[in-house]
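Q: What does the assembly look like in three dimensions?
Context provided by user:
Components: two
Sequences:
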Amino acid sequence: MSTRLAKQGRLIDRSKQVTFTFNGTSMQGYEGDTLASALLANDQMMMGRSFKYHRPRGVVASGAEEPNALVGLGQGNRFEPNQRATTTELFNGLTSVSQNHWPNLEFDIGAVNTHLSRFLPAGFYYKMFIHPKPFWKHVYEPFIRQSAGLGKAPDKDNRDADTYEHFYAFTDVLVIGGGVAGLQAAKAAAQSGAKVMLIEQTAHWGGRAPVDGGTIDNEPVDKFVEQLVSELETMGNVTMRSRCMGAGVYDHGYVLGYERLNDHKPGTQGPRHRLWRIRAKQVVTATGAIERPLSFAGNDVPGVMLASAMRDYVVNWGVTPGERVIVATNNDDAYRTAIILKQAGVDVLRVIDARAAAGPLAEEARQLGIRVDPGKAIAKVKGGKRVKKVAICNQEGIGGAREEVECDAVAMSGGWSPVVHMWSHCGGKLIWDDANAHFRPDPARPPLGANGEGFVVAAGASNGPLALGDVLTDAHAAGKAAAKAAGFKPKNTKAPAGETTQEAAMQAVWLMPANADVQLRMKSWLDFQNDVKVSDVQLAAREGYESVEHTKRYTTLGMATDQGKLSNINGLAILADALESEIPKVGTTTFRPPYTPISMGAIGGEARGEVFQPIRQTPMHDWHDENGADWEPVGHWRRTYAYVRPGESVHDAVNREVKNTRENLGLLDASTLGKLIVKGPDAGKFLDMMYTNMMSTLKVGKCRYGLMCSENGFLIDDGVVARIDEDTWLCHTTTGGAERIHGHMEEWLQTEWWDWKVYVANVTEQYAQVAVVGPNARKVLEKLGGMDVGKEALPFMEWRDGKIGDFDCRAYRISFSGELSYEIAVPASQGQAFWNALMEAGKEFGVMPYGTECLHILRAEKGFIMIGDETDGTVIPQDLGLHWALSKKKEDYLGKRAHLRSHMADPDRWKLVGLETVDGSVIPDGAYAVGEGVNANGQRNMIGRVTSTYYSANLGKGIAMGLVKHGPDRMGEIIEFPGTDGKTYKAKIVDPIFYDKDGEKQNV
Amino acid sequence: MSEPISALNHASYDGIAKVQECGLQGMITLRGDLSDKVLAKAVKDATGQKMPGQREAFVDGESGVCWMSPDELLVLVPYVEVEAKLAAMTNALSGTHALAVNVSDARAVFSISGSSAREVLGKLAPVELSSKAFQPGQIRRSRLAQVAGAFWMDDDQTLRVVCFRSAADYVFNLLKVAAQPGSEVGVY
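A: Here is the predicted structure of the complete assembly.
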């Protein structure tokens, strides 16, 4: 059994007991435990089931690389699936459940898959589910979706109880990893005066060096770490963050750090996670190395564990995963586990060493009475939910002549792989190190920054060196190199001297035994989480998969949430062997950020709830909200669609507003319309280029409606332009167009006509603008008093500055409704007061506010086009019958040349017409008109489409506008619009002006 | 004239820093040739400040001038004086190619104050805000999460933030989230 030892446990505080639950069972641990160490202390070796075969799985590692021990953590609005028990710090009240089983962890129906495993090889899904075709959608996909996935998604009705944030940080040197290498690199860099940031994913500094032992400058490693940490803490130019993982390295020295602030104390005030968005001149990756498993049959049985993890559990948390342990290795390092276990009083039955000879550590183990078997291998681990026996054979051979030994845990070590992820994220290349059988960063090919020089330096074990002394020397040099590359002068200091026992050479062992037969290979796991075995990769190779990237996807090797931290190198070694190729030729798959999964909350940061997205508000926003506004998003603005009164439907409200505006008086909040000031001696010339019609000739005091096209001739905006003075124009844009058209103007001014004397300013938000519309519009303004708004003083399409009531304003006599209409602009900070004054004064004239839908209907009744309805980026002014707005006098304007292209001048282009249903009904929005015959796909031929369609309460029937092939030539014809509701709508082609064709009402 | 009211009417929030909407501030966008002497004099007459260099802001209370781009300044004057100052400036620049326009009502202004003020802003703007890199006398035109924003420092613990008026509610809520209790970062 796995159990707590009486002594040991450098990270736990035995005076502080912590209670937690696993699958509903209450358990005890200590402060400082991880969930994994606490579960082991409670003899809970089995922690989950695998993805595909539902095999029982126990913890195999002790850190971020853990593939098996994934749990559902927390409850309700703090529930999160797939949390690694090895990186979950224990706290009082923690609740956890195991995953991927039904009905429970001990007895699981899905485990039947393991007996079907010979029928579920690599590529099974591809082969099986491709025929018959309709089965995929209706049978296979639902089935796979049902059974796929590890943890459960949180309940859809729950909302994350926590908050998250981003933080922007800037540093000269960023060191990722707070082991001895990272600490030393940080110090070496900081001594140059560079600003240094050091981040470490765990809660502890020093990494695994204190577990592995040795001395640094003749002191124990623990002591060295302690001193170095306190030294760094006193340096003003060093920032240290623990529980902060380097998640990804990107272009231009951009690095994401994932800080878990409150995961170990949920419910604490403040954000749960903080995503650090770091800009570093230089990045040092001191991310250590990860031990590789050995591929032998049954290496996934709970109780089989990485040798380094096993000694971590003993030294860090005072827990032994077993009482009778067998160690299997191809290197000297695993002997440290045997020695530590033995010293902790655990029975170490033997060390099975694939090599013929080992170094001094083996001798030390022998002296402690541990039996060492050179040249041996594990043929098979027996046991279901727990290791029961190990069958031992010769490493050279197929796995025969076995000797069986009873035990309850197996420590395995296949050598060490540097964590090269951070080096590789942004393009750093790797080289194969034959001596250590691993890939390590190629210092000649680092990720390159904007200046063409490397911006990442690898340090310590993540750079290849594994012995303590080499690690420190390398890290010290890396810190200095990073500081130098960041523009600082490193101090001439020496690396501290690390001493550990000399190690003999390791031997690459990719399969145990070397020529294991197929029965064994089918039980030798490479990827624990995704259930990929040696035999699967070999099958992929036999089926012609040569690229490691293809093999990965075919077999799903390394595609699970652990992203193959344990499996990748072993898998590609098997692939290389099967392809009879060299490992470096096969290469690795791509290392992509994040290093381990980071929370969606951290990615979103503050952007949730009321600050999920900016919502732009006009000065009268609150009034609208209090007066029944049914909101409509227009860009980031919220505009009132209609003001719904109690007892009314939205449709009722729209109809009421439409009639009232035509008959009495309506007020529209038009503040969102863009207002651009264009000024300068060349402003007229400039606007003549921007608009299709002539603006330079506009007289001061007058307004003109203008169209804007892109250089490709398509309509991009429209609006009323007012000439303010000799040098100044004010251009109204659409609501969504203000920023876009401002940018459009600036772009032409800055890149093409940089020598023209024109300045543009966006003053959209300076004004609250109210459209005062209807037969009583003049009356209400006259009642408020002030400037003369009479027909002669302020004629149609003119503007005047003046005062209305108490308000300084600019009054435009313009109309988008066809009624007598003024748009009055007042300073935004008086907008609400002005609105109130109009509402109050307008009472006797039947005033009602109206929303955007009423605005749309009124303009549609008049046949006025709307950018975004009648246009969609493919429509030109000629399509809309706006030839009158295309200046023939001007030599050039944006879009003019494009309009000459043959397709633009094609008489078959769909053209704007009015549409009137024969029965008065409303054509569905977006409906297409169909003509004779079918196209190549067997679909009805299209001859047009609806662009705007409304019920007109004024006319008592449906009205619409649409683009129809040869439309203006087909007046009176009836065409058909099949709806998605099964009905076909018949509509007559008519003039698009339905109301007051002569424009008498607006010109009174 | 009716009583002008700023976007959030002096709303405030106390968290790890104090966030307050400052009310109305007179602002003039001035575009022109910043090396022009007439323009420099017009600015000095309006604000008492000399021409700022790149990313500089010379602000004293409600008056000052901020560099916004190679051909744009933000001129700060007391709100009640903006029309008069603008008229004077326009008059002084009548023979110069320049654009001066009142944008006071198009903006909202916030102050963030306290020892964590820099950190609150550092959560929203991708700008180095350490005291080494950012001091009174400087301005940054950047973004606040998803909207445009500019900011300078009144003193070492007080930031002044300007955004568009329509985004005032969003920015205030953003600053509240960023200043929530328990969210000190501990770097600035």
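Follow-up: Chain A has a mean pLDDT of 95.
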